[in-house]
């Protein structure tokens, strides 16, 4: 859903960046630094930008992106430290943020809505669960590259979608 939104509106912004798997990458050594480097490189349209520490990355983001009208998607965030390192500590209610232009939009995907509340995110959209037939179709597209399960895989496919909800 976030990728579809990103693809449909990214051309309305001066620059755009979709950071996939924030949780997984930030858990790796120097992961937050690598995410900051990717963010800066993509939004500035330059080659690889070197960042030596999270603090340096914060400083560079503030300095280089404060005037940019950007679209940023932070996918699968699970810690407040990730938001502080990549999106700053903005007052989302008033829109006051010294990191980015007021026209910048940051989309955060997470499984933890309390994380969004702790970061004072202004608008929260909670996705609805897929119905069983929708879940089965999505599963089959990814598992079998078709809309229905392969023969002899119907029960196993249904067990998988019920287990994953």
Automatic annotation (TrEMBL):
Gene3D superfamilies: P-loop containing nucleotide triphosphate hydrolases (3.40.50.300)
Origin superkingdom: Eukaryota
Record domain NB-ARC: where: 29-147
Stored Pfam families: NB-ARC (PF00931)
Entry's Gene Ontology molecular function annotations: ADP binding
Record GO biological process: defense response
PANTHER family documented for this protein: DISEASE RESISTANCE PROTEIN (TIR-NBS CLASS)-RELATED, LEUCINE-RICH REPEAT-CONTAINING PROTEIN
Protein name: Resistance protein
Natural source organism: Arachis stenosperma
């Amino acid at each position: 859903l976030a990728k579809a939104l990103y693809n449909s509106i990214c051309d309305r912004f001066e620059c755009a960046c979709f950071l996939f798997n924030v949780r997984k990458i930030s858990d790796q050594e120097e992961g937050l630094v690598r995410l900051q480097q990717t963010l800066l490189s993509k939004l500035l349209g330059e080659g690889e930008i070197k960042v030596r520490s999270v603090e340096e990355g914060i400083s560079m983001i503030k300095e280089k992106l404060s005037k940019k009208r950007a679209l940023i998607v932070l996918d699968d965030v699970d810690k407040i430290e990730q938001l502080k390192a990549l999106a700053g500590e903005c007052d989302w209610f008033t829109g006051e943020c010294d990191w980015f232009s007021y026209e910048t939009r940051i989309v955060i995907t997470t499984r933890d809505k309390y994380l969004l509340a702790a970061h004072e995110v202004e608008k929260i959209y909670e996705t609805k669960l897929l119905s069983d037939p929708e879940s089965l179709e999505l599963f089959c597209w990814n598992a079998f590259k078709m809309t229905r399960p392969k023969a002899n895989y119907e029960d196993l496919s249904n067990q998988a979608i019920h287990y994953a909800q």
